[in-house]
C-alpha cells in the first residue's frame, strides 16, 4: 500500500475521531447512482467494499509479480512467495496471533470451521462426546458440526439466547462435563449484533471441562480490535471480504500444539514433506493445511486490507460504528412499527440492526429501499435457528462499516417512511 493513498494517517486519528466522509474517497464504488439515487450501502455484514490500496495491491501483484509460491527458483516466484508470506505475518499480527505459522489461509470463515470439523472433529470426536454450540450461530458454524456429529456419534448441545438476544451464559456451567470436547460460538452475531464476552466464556469453559474453544470471528475481526491470545480461545476463524479484503480468502488461527495434533484437511501439492507409494509425511505448519496453489493474490489483498484498517485504527472504527448505531436506533424509533432485534444495551452490540416493520415483508422492504438507492439485506441471514427463536421467517438487516455516515442512516429512515406510505 502506498502511504499517500490513504485519506488519514494514524497520527491524525484519535480513537474517537474518524472522518468517514474523507475515508469514503478511498472507496470509489460508493460514489455511484443506484436507481436514480446516490448509493447508501448498508449491507456490510454480507460483504464490505474494497479501498483503493487493496485494489492497487491486487493489480500490482498481477502486473509485476505473478508466479506460483514456494516452488520456482526464479525472481517472480521469489517475490510472490515473499509477498504471500509477509501478508501472513501482518494478518497474524493484526489478530494478536503469537506465531504467523499458526495462521492458515482458507477461503473464509466457512472453510476455517470446516477445517476444524473435518480435521480435528473426525480425529478426536467419538460416540458420546459433546459439542456445545449456540442458538445464535450462522449456518457455517452449525452444519459442519451436524455432519461430523453424524459421522462420529458425538452429540450437539445448545446454549440458548435470552429475550434480548444475549447468550444465556449462566446456564453454560451446567452444560459442561467430561464429555464436552468442543465449545464453539460466534464472537459477534450477524443478525442480532450481540458482542459475546469471549474471554469470560472461555474462562468458564476451561474451568468446567477439558474442551477446546473455537470462535467464529466473521463479524468481529472487521469491526473490533481482536487479540486471539488475550481471548484465550484455541481456534478462531474469519473472512477477508468482510474486512475490506478480496472474496475467496480468509484465515483460521489455532494454537500450534492443536494444529500439530490435527491431521491434514486436504491432500495434494505444497502440504507434504515426502511422498512414497506406501504413504506420505506432512510439511511443517502452516503448509500442512494449505494443499495446492493458494489464493496468492487474495492473501496479498487481505494483507493490504489489514494495513489499511490498522492505519484507520480499529478502536476508531469500533467507536464510529457505535456512534452510528446509537444515532440509527434513535432515528429509526421515529418510524412507526419499527422493531429492532438484539440487546438494548449498546455496549453489548455492534453496528448491525435487524428489524421488522409492522406487517411489511422484509423482501418488500428491501426491494423498496433498493428503489431508493439503499442497499440492505432481507431473509434469514443464514441463521434460521435465531429466526426460530423469534418466531420470524425473516428480518430486514442494515449493517454499518466505518465508511457509513449519518446521511446513510437518514436515507434508510427516509426509505422506511416510503415503505410505510405504501403499506400503511
Ligand atoms: C457470523 C458469521 N459466520 C460465518 C459467516 C460465513 O462467512 P463466509 O461466507 O465468508 O465464509 C458469516 C457470513 O455472513 C457470518 O456472518
Structure write-up:
This protein has two domains: 138 residues, Aspartate Aminotransferase, domain 1; 255 residues, Type I PLP-dependent aspartate aminotransferase-like (Major domain) (Aspartate Aminotransferase, domain 2, 3-Layer(aba) Sandwich). Helix 2 packs antiparallel against helix 10, helix 3 crosses helix 10 and helix 4 packs parallel to helix 5. The chain contains 14 helices and 17 strands. Strands 4-10-9-8-7-5-6 form a seven-stranded mixed beta sheet, sandwiched between helices. Strands 13-14-17-16 form a four-stranded antiparallel beta sheet, with helices on one face. The N terminus is likely disordered. The chain is an alpha/beta fold. The protein is globular and about 70 Å long. The site of pyridoxal-5'-phosphate (PLP) has 12 residues, from helix 4.
Amino acid at each position: 500500500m502506498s502511504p499517500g493513498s490513504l485519506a488519514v494517517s494514524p497520527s491524525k486519528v484519535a480513537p474517537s475521531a474518524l472522518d468517514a466522509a474523507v475515508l469514503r474517497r478511498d472507496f470509489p464504488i460508493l460514489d455511484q447512482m443506484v436507481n436514480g439515487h446516490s448509493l447508501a450501502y448498508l449491507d456490510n455484514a454480507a460483504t464490505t467494499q474494497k479501498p483503493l490500496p487493496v485494489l492497487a495491491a491486487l493489480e500490482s501483484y498481477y502486473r509485476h509479480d505473478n508466479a506460483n509460491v514456494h516452488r520456482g527458483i526464479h525472481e517472480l516466484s521469489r517475490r510472490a512467495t515473499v509477498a504471500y508470506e509477509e501478508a501472513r505475518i501482518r494478518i497474524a499480527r493484526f489478530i494478536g496471533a503469537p506465531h504467523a505459522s499458526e495462521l492458515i489461509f482458507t477461503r473464509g470463515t466457512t472453510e476455517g470451521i470446516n477445517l476444524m470439523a473435518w480435521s480435528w472433529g473426525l480425529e478426536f470426536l467419538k460416540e458420546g462426546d459433546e459439542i456445545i454450540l449456540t442458538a445464535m450461530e450462522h449456518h457455517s458454524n452449525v452444519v459442519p458440526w451436524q455432519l461430523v456429529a453424524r459421522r462420529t456419534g458425538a452429540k450437539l448441545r445448545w446454549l440458548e439466547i435470552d429475550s434480548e438476544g444475549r447468550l444465556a451464559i449462566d446456564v453454560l456451567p451446567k452444560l459442561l462435563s467430561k464429555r464436552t470436547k468442543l465449545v464453539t460460538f460466534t464472537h459477534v452475531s450477524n443478525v442480532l449484533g450481540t458482542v459475546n464476552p469471549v474471554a469470560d466464556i472461555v474462562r468458564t469453559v476451561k474451568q468446567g471441562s477439558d474442551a477446546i474453544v473455537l470462535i467464529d470471528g466473521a463479524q468481529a475481526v472487521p469491526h473490533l480490535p481482536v487479540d486471539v491470545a488475550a481471548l484465550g480461545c484455541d481456534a478462531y476463524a474469519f473472512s477477508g471480504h468482510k474486512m475490506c479484503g478480496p472474496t475467496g480468502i480468509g484465515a483460521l488461527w489455532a494454537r500450534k500444539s492443536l494444529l500439530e495434533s490435527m491431521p491434514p484437511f486436504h491432500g495434494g501439492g505444497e502440504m507434504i514433506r515426502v511422498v512414497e507409494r506406501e504413504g506420505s509425511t506432512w510439511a511443517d505448519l502452516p503448509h500442512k493445511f494449505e494443499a495446492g496453489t493458494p489464493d496468492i493474490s487474495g492473501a496479498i489483498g487481505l494483507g493490504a486490507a489489514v494495513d489499511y484498517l490498522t492505519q484507520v485504527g480499529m478502536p476508531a472504527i469500533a467507536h464510529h460504528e457505535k456512534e452510528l448505531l446509537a444515532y440509527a436506533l434513535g432515528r429509526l424509533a421515529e418510524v412507526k412499527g419499527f422493531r429492532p432485534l438484539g440487546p438494548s444495551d449498546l455496549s453489548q452490540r455492534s453496528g448491525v440492526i435487524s428489524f421488522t416493520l409492522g406487517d411489511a415483508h422484509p423482501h418488500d422492504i428491501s426491494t423498496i429501499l433498493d428503489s431508493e438507492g439503499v442497499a440492505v439485506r432481507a431473509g434469514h441471514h443464514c441463521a434460521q435457528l435465531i429466526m426460530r427463536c423469534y418466531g420470524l421467517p425473516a428480518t430486514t438487516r442494515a449493517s454499518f462499516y466505518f465508511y457509513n455516515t449519518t446521511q446513510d442512516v437518514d436515507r434508510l429512515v427516509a426509505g422506511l417512511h416510503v415503505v410505510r406510505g405504501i403499506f400503511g
